[in-house]
Amino acid sequence: MRLGTDRTSGDRDPNDNKHQTFFQILPTPRICARFPFYNMMNLEDDFTEVILRPHPRVMVRSDYRWLRLSQPADMWYSGGGAFQYSTFGFSGRPSGGTRDLGNLADFSIDFKATAKTTLTFYYGYANGGKIIHSIYPAGSTGSLAYWEISQRF
Fold first, then answer.
1. Total domain count for the chain?
2. 75-79, 86-90, 103-107 — which is least confidently predicted?
3. Range of the domain at 113
């Protein structure tokens, strides 16, 4: 079990011609943010995480995250980096002057079927805070689930 917090800088004054938001150049968001509606730019991420290994071939992981912006004057940034020419793979949405991005609860189970093959199930549920609700008033929650087969060669 672990408890943690990550905090990255946001821009206190977006009108001063100095971009002071932490910039995640080439992120690998899936390792930490497995439901990628946020990244490390202008973010405070307080979390709890539990990892259990009930069998040598099984790993169960569950996280709960409280997500807030570091600076309410800055934007909510999302995206995974250098995959799109026009935006460099990032987008920013207005925060509306608030810090409350939302909460995320997720669960996964990994089963090592063979020495080179792993089967994974993941489910995440996000409850949007004031920022997300102001942008998506008809529905500020979301879910993501997937099955994955990883094969090493």
1. 1
2. 86-90
3. 47-66+97-153
